[in-house]
Amino acid sequence: MKLDKGLNSSDMKIRNRSRVLKLLIKKNELSRKGIADYMGLTKAAISRIVAELIDEKIIKEKGIQETGALGRNKILLELNKKLGYVLGLSLCEDHLMLIITDVSGGIVGTCLHEFEYHTDFDEMEMINLIANKSLQLLWEHGIDKCSVFGFGISYIGEMDNININMISSGIQNRLGLSVIAENNVRALAMYEMDFVRDLTSNNFLFIKYGPGLGMTIVQNEKVIEGINSRAGEIGHTIMDSAADTTCRCGRRGCLESLISEKGVVKDIEKKGGLYSPLILNNKLALIDYRQASIMIENKDQFILSIFEKRFDYLAKTIANAIILLDPGFVCVYGAIFRQKIILDIIIKKINTYIAENIESKIIVSDLDPGNLALGSATLVIRNVFFNSGGYRTVQMAQVQ
Ligand SMILES: [Zn+2]
User: Fold this and answer.
1) What mean pLDDT, rounded, does the chain reach?
2) Which one, of 163, 145, 141, lies nearest residue 153 by Cα?
3) Residues with beta carbon < 5 A to ion ligand 1?
């Protein structure tokens, strides 16, 4: 058995470099003293790390920050965003989305492709499609494949009609890039952690609604996976076993089958008439929540009948998750949460279901609900860039 003797000096160096890079991404720009203050290290120690990172062209000096008549001016530092790029793929049952980002997670280009028919995938066909579209996207943005550090794939859980391992190794062979794949809700939670939330937000729940429902549990800055990598699958908790709904996992009464956006679209389609424009895209189950929230405010009985029970199921589940896991906050992601009227209804319900002494801090994610591929790019940036303290990107840039 290997004994854990703690971090050696090389591990510590990687960890400190990694923290400097993460800080610069979240704060955009900082002085050496600013970094030292955040990290609780001496300015001399930070200056050594910064000198190394500048030498390796991973970060650069940006300009001077005026600090007033008495203080000395500070030189600001920023990440060298042109260090390299990342390709990301979000794979769903009915469409795929490709994205190119720089190493700071900034979007350079995207491409959406809807599948013509919904059936079993032919993996070879899919690999060819993804590889060709990736090369085309790089070409359109004038990016050489040599400056791409890796390929991330995020996919919806419980996809039994597609072999993700086969797709991953096929893309790796076709494009010559290392591929990292992960469940899409976890990948988006990692984006929140690495690029958006501050460094103190290391215990939270990330809940994604639309078209299905999923949750990621983050504790001490780590994503909790569970023994079978199924931790957080709240969409597949049984809410009503007598319900007349069969979930994509094959069981009856899963929460996701009761509240999914596809079910909402079906109900609206059945009614038709003046409600039809609420469906923006039938295949992708995109709903005009702005119009829906106006109808809810005007107490439209049909729309209320569609949403009321679904909001209730969702609120109960979030409340139960808060009670079970006691997070610092809950970050909710999805187009539905961007409508204040709807969000207020859900939060009010959550508060009625949790004990008075428990706080429900709900934060709406700023991430674009229409761009799931951002999470997939994060997988590569996290593994290749952050976790190696930038060393791997330097090595790769030298090989190229
Ligand atoms: Zn299920």
Assistant:
1) 88
2) 163
3) 236, 247, 249, 254
